[in-house]
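Hi P.,

Sorry for the delay on this. The queue was packed all week, but I finally got your sequence through. Input first:
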Amino acid sequence: MTDPSEDGRVRTIRAAVSADGPELETAGQQKLLLHVWGKLQRTEGALRDEIAQHRKLKKEREEDVAGYKEMLGKIQDLSEQKNAQLNAMMESIRAERDAFEAGNQAIVQLLMERGGVHHHQLLVNSKDRGDTLKLSVERLVNDMESQELTIGQLVKEKKNLTHKKEQLETELQVLKKQLSGLKTASMGSDRKEKRLQGQLEASQKKLKSCEDANKGLSEQLEKMRGDMKMLTGKLESMTATQTKVHRENVSLRRSIKQKEGEIQETRRDTVALTTHNQLKEKCNELEKSLSAEQQAHAEKLRKVTDKDKRNIEQLRQELETAHGELEEVKEKLETTLQQVHSLQRDLHEKELENQNTHQTLQKLIKEEQEAQEENRELKRQLSLKEENQNTMRNRLHKESTSLARQKEEREGELAAVTRELQESREVEKGLQLDKESLSQQLKRIQEEVGGYQVRLLEMEQFMETGKQQVTTEQEANHTKIKELEDRVSTLDMDKRTLSEKLDERIEQHQKLQHELRTERDAKDQLRSEVQRSQMKARSLREEKKKSSSELEQQLASAEAENLTLQQKIDKLKAELQNMVLANTKATGAEEVLRRIEKDLRLKLQEREAENHSLVQKATEKSEDTARLTAEVKEQKEICKRKHGKIDSLQQEVQTGRERLAAVEAELSTLQQNISHTTEEKSALEGAVSTMCGELENTRQELAAAGERAKLEMKTVQDKLDTAEQRLATALAEKEDKKKSSQRAVEELKTKVEMLEQRLTQASQDSSERADQLGHTERKFSEQIQTLRQKLSTVEAQKQQEREELGNQLKKLSATLSHTQQELQSREQELEVTKARLSETEKMCSESESLLDREKSSTVNLQQQLTDEQGTSAKFREQLQELVTKNATALGAQKKLEAELTEKQSLIALLHFYHRCRSKSGEQIQSLPRYRPSKRPCRERRSSSNRR
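Then the structure:
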């Protein structure tokens, strides 16, 4: 397409090229100038972009330089503060050292003045203390050496830091130089901007037309963005539904996955078809636009060629007058060509400058990358230094504590030494030696203190540098966190774009459904048309039947008119054949339409069934998920309740067990009591049995004694009888012996009396014994009765206790059996609940795995969307490449046409010029409107030949 601002550009270029000469230029020159103008615009845009980049880099470098300057200022301030602190510390140390030396001198003077008796003991004590001090000094020397090593390491690190600081300063100087160079380049570019500002004004007019052309594309992009937003909303709703539908069975998942794969394939096909059709439409539109542009360009070329022909005719008519002007125009053309060459050189120089600036930019980028790497290394070193700092802090703290302890010990030792020196007046020589050793030790201690102070200062400096580095690292970490947040936001934007693409796919599916509906409507229309044709065929068939019946009647009625009727019948048959063919065609079309309709209906039914099944599955999934969530909640609540019941049952079991233990303890105590009572009963029974045995023995003894007494009485009576018989016999036989017999009788009487007394005594004794035995029997019987009563009461109590214990045992056994049954039932319920819980956990895990799969499937869909976006971007890039190629081809065609027109015009001018030269000078003079040039013809010819 042509630009309306071309004439204005040509005028501006003409005005710039030839301000004094006439404006007589060809279309080829105009096009060449326009080509140069386009190149200048491109170079100008590139230069502006580069200048903007240079300015950005300049600003960044200036900000970096300001940051470095601030850092250097902070470091200098800190170093000054530390130097001031060091000076104050050194002055305080010097004052303490002077005071300590003055005290030592006073002590030495006192020692010199005084002397005493305890010379030997003080020498020995001073030697021992000198040895201990030497050992402590050696330890301090070793510590100082180790600290000197650490100080050396710190000094090395400080040197490395100073070296790095110097490197950074050199880099800053290099950057300053580069900035100055960039400033100079920017100044030159500003001048070039001022030059090209006028050219930009003309190019802005062309850009307006491009903007008008791009407005349609921007509107399309806005529409697409609106569609993408709608798709994002739909995707969000889909994601919400997906979050709801996160638990379903494996079989449903497999079927859904299969259906989703089929849907994805159909979507891909539809998207590919739509994208292909869109690309085809775009390509057709581009081809149409290109063809229109080519036609317009051809018309322009025709117009230009017509104008050139007219101009050539006018030139032929006015050549005589414009011969000198032609040479001037040639000179001006040479000047313009030289200017064009100079412009090309400038452009080449600008390109070289651009390349140099690009190289410098690449160098700067590389330097920035190196600086970033160095910053990372510095951060790593800072972290290491922080660790070293922490270790050195701990070490210094320990050393400071140890030094304070040593100082306190030494102060105590010095106090003891002063006391001993006051006591030891006589020990001057030994104390002088001690003084020398102490002075040496003091010098060493002072040197050590100075070294420690230096180390402390260095460590403090190191700590402050570490703090600064830590702050820088924290700032870097904050920047990294911000970058990560930006990345997260970009990822969210990518997610939104993917959701928008999914919504686009859904909209495409809806479009396909709309197209299917339109096709269905078209099929309905075709069906209605087929029905109309069928109705027509039926009407024709009915008419045919009517006509055949009429013809038969006519044939039966009138045979005369057979020929005419036959002709009419033939005509009607031909018409019928045509109608039959039309019917067959209509029926074939109907069949084809029916097949198409059936296929489309089947496809629609399948799609609708699939969509309905998907919707049902989605609803079922949502219902299943809701039901599963409710069931899971209920099961969780049931589990909680069961856990509470289990806990309560366990508590009840525990209390039952405790009761059982208490009852068992009571049973054991009762059993012990029963055993004790049985033992007491056995003991009482044993005592009763022993007493019964004793009673029986006494009875037996009494019975034996009574029998003995009876036997003795019998024997006495027998003896009395025998004695009486003897007396009778003796009285009868020996009357003489009366006295002796009387004596014997008296003796017997005395014996009998004695026996009677004995019997009476024995009877009395037996009665007393019987009384005693009766009394004892009564006592024993009373005791036995009391014991039996006690036993009966104890047995009754024990029986009651046994019955109560039996009842309690029965109750406890019942409660135990009941609790055991409850425990078994609860354990069964627990096992069932555990099984349900395991099943629910399995279901949850399966649903979670299904969710993960769905997430992976969504991720895959998003990946497919990204892939399709990449393919669409590739298609767009290909289209853009085609457009650019077409544009380049058009530009090349225009260039070629311009060159052809230039060559044709030059050839025509040369032919005309040679013709004019072939004519004589007189003829030339006789021509009208001839204006002779100022120079002679020979000079003109020589100049033209030279050209």
